């Protein structure tokens, strides 16, 4: 018998249901009772369900429905955000995705409020948007290093809540996933990047500097969960030491979000029978 | 024994090596001696090769290399352009793709020259761009229906050649694929869209009207091949009655384009040994 979720991912991984992030176990697989093999097998199966739902969303988007889904990915360096884009995003038609990575803001971006570049990258109707990092960077490194005065970053939580509730009101389903690796696992992954010439390009010396601020980052994440985890735009905390689990979990959360839209195939905006006749009569 | 290409796809499918498009056989599988099963099997295998090359391109793009690849897809309605995006694009990391579909120009686009919207959508460094329709629409429906005066569309072939040679000179490898279905096969595919409620959204009554101009479109495609098929930005003609073959062929052409870049993993822009020491010393 195949293993599966004993508790729905959307309950088992919800940020506010968990204890403090500092005592979270990145090796765990909350809600799932299977091992790597059964998880990998289930991902392939659920991937097909995700692809079907994505096509429904896309079809509706092409037919005038303005809804979209936005998956926000956050997490420490090496937590596997890129792997989620590749291995979960890769399960669906790439045409239906709108992927955007947010790095250090450009000079142009810095001349605008912090949500400017975010708003520009929101997914069009019918798409699944994936943000690899996001507006939450503006309360993560920005907070840890006080890149703007505390009085400014402190206000951002409320601004983010306001922004996200507007987003949801205008038809975007928002789910936010924080991938959590342990400090040891991060060290292992950084070491691998330094050991393999085909991984050098992923290595950034700055990652070691950021590692020194590990606890400050945990505190900044805790503040995010405390202040911005709402039912309308929930935060999920994804243990990410086991990549197979984090991929399975995010896939499941996306399925849950898409299922919530209760989509059906768009009705024909033409007369089917008369089109059939026209086609039969055509050369 | 597995079947494979008896002639490289880049030779067997090159537009200028073929006779007139009007006598082209959309059922054929030029250069490939296998059937559907062996073609499907080969696609899975070659898909992994494509994914590896795409990762190399992406890695180089992230490390300062400005090169990119652009796949231009054209073809009659129902020829399977979307299927190529899904099934060939879907073989690689979606993060490395830059997909853009071009529909009827918007009022804003019409206020600019016809290449304006094209230039805005060119792939960033390290990406594989896929254009689902392209600037060639401006010498296809535009020519067939004289949406601009003949004196204007006639000039566009030279403008396109100039544009593409600039593009190539600035580091974008361009390959152009025209998917060709037979008129009978199109009728079958349109009928299927009218028979299946899950396909209504793909049906457009205008497709029947365009079908009445079939020969004019063939003539317009012939002009494109005659005037814009250059070694620097070649046209390939892909028989598309058999979807498995068109997907296999485009995958192979992409592999060929990427291999031509002779990419290697980017060198480290940091001192590997001293970073190893820093990491070991870090907490």
UniProtKB/TrEMBL annotation, chains A, B:
<keyword id="KW-0418">Kinase</keyword>
<feature type="domain" description="Polyphosphate kinase-2-related">
    <location>
        <begin position="35"/>
        <end position="259"/>
    </location>
</feature>
<keyword id="KW-0808">Transferase</keyword>
<protein>
    <recommendedName>
        <fullName>Polyphosphate kinase-2-related domain-containing protein</fullName>
    </recommendedName>
</protein>
<dbReference type="InterPro" id="IPR022300">
    <property type="entry name" value="PPK2-rel_1"/>
</dbReference>
<dbReference type="InterPro" id="IPR027417">
    <property type="entry name" value="P-loop_NTPase"/>
</dbReference>
<dbReference type="Pfam" id="PF03976">
    <property type="entry name" value="PPK2"/>
</dbReference>
<dbReference type="InterPro" id="IPR022488">
    <property type="entry name" value="PPK2-related"/>
</dbReference>
<dbReference type="InterPro" id="IPR016898">
    <property type="entry name" value="Polyphosphate_phosphotransfera"/>
</dbReference>
